[in-house]
Amino acid sequence: MKPTFSFIHAADLHLDAAFKGVAHVSSQVAGVLRSATFEALERLTQLACKERPLFVVLAGDIYNQEDQSLKARFALLDACKRMDEAGVRVFIVHGNHDPLVESEKSFSFPENVHIFGTEGVEQVRVENSDGELVAVVHGISHGKHNERRKLARQYKRTEDDVFQIALLHCTVDSVAASEQYAPASVGDFAKSGIDYWALGHIHEQQIVSKEPFAAYSGNIQGLHINEQGERGCLFVTVEDGQSTIRSHTLGTVQWKIIPVDISAIEQLDMLEDAVENYLDGVVQTLPESCKGVIVRLVLKGRSVLDGELRKNGAVQEFTERIREGQMQNSPFVWLKDIELACKPDVDIKAMRSRPDLLGEALTVAESLTGENGVEELRESVSELYGSPAVKRNLTILTDVELEQLAAEAQYLCIDLLEAE
């Protein structure tokens, strides 16, 4: 029987990275957000020092090189020193946000740390406290922000009859991703003969393949509204050559998108009560380790309040009122924004068939919500995005966002063109 050992798989720490879409937060929330990535690293370090795995692997994007944050780099150094004192080794590859360039070599890490280079895949043999060879860790770092080499194809199992781990920051072709860095496939993994692929880059924790085993550990702290729920690392136990994993939460702040059906709500004060009840319910579901939650409410259903909510500035004023009532909660609740996915309490199909300007406008707006309509919409705004100034300040809209705008235009037409 082969020796049993354990290791921690973490990635995408993005230390000191700014949270997106949370401008003008209160000073209380701002303080928690500034420290959130560092607190997640602290929890990772505490886990390693308490559980004493044989080693920790960090699969890239430990910080954002473009931020030039010395605080982030010192935090990593301090964490590695503490793990060294606990007898835990650390293996690091660099990713697209923290490529291994000369400036990254300006820190002297303790002897327990091995940083993989960029020229070719390196192998490190790992022994346990009894001096037995129990694992081989393979790795290669990104050498630039836009790494296009198919690095996974360079990995190959050594002849050692032990558990072997590949550490790589990459995009697997079976996983949806807008940015393709160090593109790889499950087929590449299988050809390597390696037992466990510890991946970084995709922020959602997920198993990519079971044979060979390949997983993204996800990021340790969500950074925007599309990174919902708990975030953390994978604790891997290897027994007789077989691995088992368990997820461990590290993040201190969560993001949530909450749908609220307002079909039966007829007054704004009733809506306020309903929203506050939803948010209070969210707090009750949070784990003790969570310091706060950032929420987007999505109002749905046909409602008599639709027109009132769509008036200029109404949603923002309502949002600010809700925020005031939630700031005393612990964990805190910060209402990021409210999205109007509701509809007016009218028969829009009947209105569309009317032989007047409103009927014509609704018909045109509906035609722009299909696949062909989206292409027409994109073509109509292409000239706007041709301006360099606009490109710097506006995000290019997705097909879904364009369809949402076309759908919302129908209700705006009703508000503006329907006679009182």
Topology:
Elements: E1 5-10, H1 27-51, E2 55-59, H2 70-85, E3 89-93, E4 113-115, E5 122-127, E6 133-139, E7 163-169, E8 171-172, E9 183-184, H3 186-192, E10 196-200, E11 206-210, E12 213-216, E13 232-239, E14 242-249, E15 253-261, H4 268-285, E16 292-300, E17 302-303, H5 306-309, H6 314-326, E18 332-340, E19 343-344, H7 348-352, H8 357-367, H9 371-385, H10 388-393, H11 399-417
Parallel strand pairs: 1-2, 2-3, 3-4, 6-7, 7-10, 8-9, 10-12, 15-16, 16-18, 17-19
Antiparallel strand pairs: 1-13, 5-6, 11-12, 13-14
Overall CATH architecture of the largest domain: 4-Layer Sandwich
- Give a quick account of the main beta sheet: strands, pairing sense, barrel closure: 6 strands, mixed
Task: Write down how many β-strands occur, each being a DSSP E stretch of 2 or more residues.
Answer: 19
Helical amount among residues, as a percent range? Answer: 25-40%
Distance between the termini: 82 Å
Relative strand content = 15-25%
**Globular, elongated, flat, extended or rod-shaped: what is the shape?**
elongated
Keywords: Hydrolase
Protein name: Calcineurin-like phosphoesterase domain-containing protein
Pfam families: Metallophos
Organism: Halodesulfovibrio spirochaetisodalis
